[in-house]
Amino acid sequence: MKGMSLESENLPFNEYVYNDRWRSRTLDVKSYWDLHRRSIESFEEFWASIARELEWFKPWDKVLDASNPPFYKWFVGGELNLSYLALDRHVKTWRKNKLALIWEGEPVDQSGYPVDRRKLTYYDMWREVNRVAYMLRNNFGVRKGDRITIYLPMIPELPIVMYAAWRIGAITSVVFSGFSADALADRINDSQSRLVITADGFWRRGKVVRLKDIVDKALEKAPGVENVVVYRRLGLNDVPMTEGRDWFWEKALAGVPHNAYVEPERLESTHPSYILYTSGTTGKPKGIIHDTGGWAVHVYATMKWVFDVRDDDIYWCTADIGWVTGHSYIVLGPMLMGATQIMYEGAPDFPQPDRWWAIIERYGVSILYTSPTAIRTFMRFGEEWPRKHDLSTLRIIHSVGEPINPEAWRWAYTNLGSQNVAFGSTWWMTETGGIVISHAPGLYLAPMKPGTNGPPLPGFEVDVVDESGKPAPPGVRGYLVIKRPWPGMLHGIWGDPERYIKTYWSRFPGMFYAGDYAIRDQDGYIWVLGRADEVIKVAGHRLGTYELESAFISHPAVAEAAVIGVPDPIKGEVPIAFIVLKQGVAGTDELRKELRQHIRNTVGPIAEPAQIFFVSKLPKTRSGKIMRRLLRAVATNSPLGDTTTLEDETSVEEAKRAYEELKREVSQ
Ligand code: WTA
Question: Where in this chain does the record put each AMP-dependent synthetase/ligase domain (predicted)?
């Protein structure tokens, strides 16, 4: 398999970890499975009982409409509004003046103390959301079902704009602020957004990132955009503004009363709340569509089970809202619960490697949701950094986005959690809308094991199957599938229903195919090993190798490209590229640099390849398919396996030579 090979690490299937704090919540494995079985036996009633805990304007007529699979519908006939659930509902209670958000900007003063801080109560958020909803509706004519592209950094206006959009039934399409102009333009065009909301820029590792400049470049390729709203995070005074199209935030809010109130729309449960673009196995990212009611129920349930959020908790999810983790577990989840959460703008190691630990100490963070890449990065910095701070408030840590290697788990459990936290690796994906496989300390805690995802959550029927779709025996690698619809599930790909069926529901009929390799151990715990397709996870960020290949080919010097992911001790995986240049073009170091920059510009900095190899041909099958598997074998020094379909053996030899040569150069 590709990626950071968990398999080769000899997974600790039998290493059970218990601690005192969670002893009373720890269930033995068998009792957990009894509970899980009951949730599946009556799974519609099970989900309905959770949905009843939310406030619906109108109750549903049918929990699940499965009459036209795989186009499932949840809570059909029900009406609700996410903005109402996350704000109005709390504003009517004592939580009105509770802090919803503690925001910290990146810059610090000489003593290392943050200089930009904002604290917003639920009432503050509610007022801001109403003002922005009024602006969207009255000043920009946004209507139910319209798409809005949001390209904002990690500032409170990001969730505020999202809730404002949901309040009036608009569909958000958030684009990660680390994506390039081209990636942004593609997403604007695909979603046919006419309004873009952005900022002048933001701080990242002590440097200013000029976001609006990127938007201007994108808009050269996205002519459908009529208006751009620009929030001044930095107050730059040289932001080019196009007359009649671009509006600074204050101008955009012209005429909006300070106490504006916008009645939340009564939205059908099945109404789309957001589109989020994610990478797959073609060059074009797909716009994953999520509904309103099912998503809310799934996220709400998992907030309770997995994060056990209580009113005195300080919750911090370190993800960016530009990815699905931020959508479900920063924007929606904590606010559905009426929780207080931390939001941080900048880099984890600015001004020094203890920034996160300083934040945990400063606010007394009790629940931390982070990524294996972050943990491995901190491991490298050393345990003296967390040791400088009091982290004893932490009671739950979870990771997400990629497999966590047992060593990183043990490090964090000890050095961050003082061996006294519940700590799991929550498996899910953009398509699932919420966590599916995870420890659930809010409900029970099956004994922890370093590196596992644990058993599936109640209500989810998950399996590991072989090529033919039959359950794989314990300990044997297979494909991860979900055998029943679930509330937070995707509802298609924007503009491409065929692709939805083909990608997710065709490989194993009647089951959702996740695209991951996994092992189920003797206790039924799932260990997700990594992607089984051409998707790679770079520092937890999901990228398609085909996307990178198309980006390479768009450069005038490149004839052909093959991109693969190879294991990396910190980032999990990194992309490397094998490039065939056009006739007459020389493969110089200069060109290598230029190609790197080209990828940064066309996809984004996160996609920059770790290495670029120039070769004269790529290994292909006789029918012309690139055999990435062989390149992967070359790059990871593993056996080539079956090469009978290979058209020209010298291609592999050449790739090997190029690889060896570069390795020699690097080591010299
Ligand atoms: C991977 C992120 C192992 C997996 C929420 C999945 C994980 C892909 C885990 C989805 C985990 C996510 N352990 N692998 N705890 N969580 N993955 O859409 O390969 O950005 O298919 O969603 O991340 O990535 P996405």
Answer: 89-493
Which residue has its alpha carbon closest to ligand 1 atom 8?
A: 429
Q: Which residues pair with 611 in a beta bridge?
A: 576
- Ramachandran bin of 602, using left for φ above 0, alpha for ψ from -120 to 50, beta for the remaining angles: alpha
Question: Ligand 1 pocket: which of 325, 402, 438 to mutate (most atoms <8 Å of CB)?
Answer: 402
Scored b (16 or more CB within 10 A) or e, 539-549 reads: bbbbbbbbbbb
Backbone angles phi, psi at 296, to 5 degrees: -60, -45
For residue 7, give the amino acid letter.
E
**Residues facing residue 26 across a β-bridge:** 445
Atom of ligand 1 minimally distant from the CA of 529: 3
Q: Residue 483: helix, strand or coil by DSSP?
A: coil
**Residue 166 and residue 49: Cα distance in Å, rounded?**
24
pLDDT bucket at 6, cuts 50 / 70 / 90: low
State the chain's maximal CA–CA distance in angstroms. 72
Q: What pLDDT shows up at residue 1?
A: 45
Question: Is 22 buried (19+), middle (13-18) or exposed (0-12) by CB count in 10 A?
Answer: buried
Whose structure tokens read 């009978």? Answer: 644
Rg (CA), the chain: 24
Residue-level length of the chain: 668
pLDDT of 304 over the 60 cut: yes
Q: Which residue has the tokens 């004994």?
A: 447
pLDDT higher than threshold 70 for residue 359: yes
- Mean pLDDT throughout 459-470? 98
What's residue 666's pLDDT? 61
Q: Which two tokens stand for residue 284?
A: 């074009």
What is the pTM (predicted TM-score) of this model?
0.95
User: Measured in angstroms, how far is the CA atom of residue 401 from the centroid of ligand 1?
Assistant: 4
Ligand 1 lining (C-beta closer than 6 Å): 278, 323-325, 400-403, 425-430, 453, 514-516, 528, 530-531, 537, 542
Q: Which CATH class is domain 534-667?
A: alpha beta
How far apart are alpha carbons 341 and 360 in whole angstroms?
11
Ligand 1 center from residue 615 Cα (angstroms): 32
Q: How far, in Å, is the centroid of ligand 1 from the Cα of 542?
A: 8
What pLDDT score does 4 carry? Answer: 45
Cα separation, 309 vs 118, whole angstroms: 22
Rounded to whole angstroms, the Cα distance separating 340 from 59 reads 29
- φ/ψ of 429, rounded to 5, equals -155, 170
**Residue 269 — pLDDT band, cuts 50, 70, 90?**
very high
Helices (H), 116-226: 122-134, 140, 157-167, 181-191, 211-219
The answer, yes or no, to whether residue 5 has pLDDT greater than 70, is no
- Distance between Cα 538 and ligand 1 center (Å): 11
Tell me which amino acid residue 615 is: V
Cα separation of 10 and 443, whole Å? 30
* Beta strands at 478-482 and 558-568: parallel, antiparallel or unpaired: unpaired
Which structure tokens are listed for 203?
A: 């701080």
